[in-house]
Design goal:
- The protein is mostly beta strands.
- 9% of the residues lie in helices and 26% in strands.
- A hairpin with a 6-residue loop joins strand 1 (7-9) and strand 2.
- The longest helix is centred in the last third of the chain and has 4 residues, at 39-42.
- The protein is globular and about 25 Å long.
- 6% of the residues are buried.
- This is Desulfoferrodoxin Dfx domain protein.
- Keywords: Electron transport, Iron, Metal-binding, Transport.
- One of its GO terms (molecular function) is iron ion binding.
Length: 47
């Protein structure tokens, strides 16, 4: 379950999303599950 503030990336197209509001379910893109980014990987996307 994605938590607020986490970043996820699509392994197929490279789209990156930040979770603004936690919820149930899994994040998907291109009909595939998105991978969660480590803190170091997510640094480049933070404000």
């Amino acid at each position: 379950m994605p938590a607020q503030g986490e970043f996820y990336r699509c392994t197929l197209c490279g789209n990156v999303v930040e979770v603004k509001q936690a919820g149930d379910g899994d994040l998907t893109c291109c009909d595939m599950p998105m991978e969660d980014l480590t803190e170091n990987e997510a640094k480049q996307f933070k404000d």
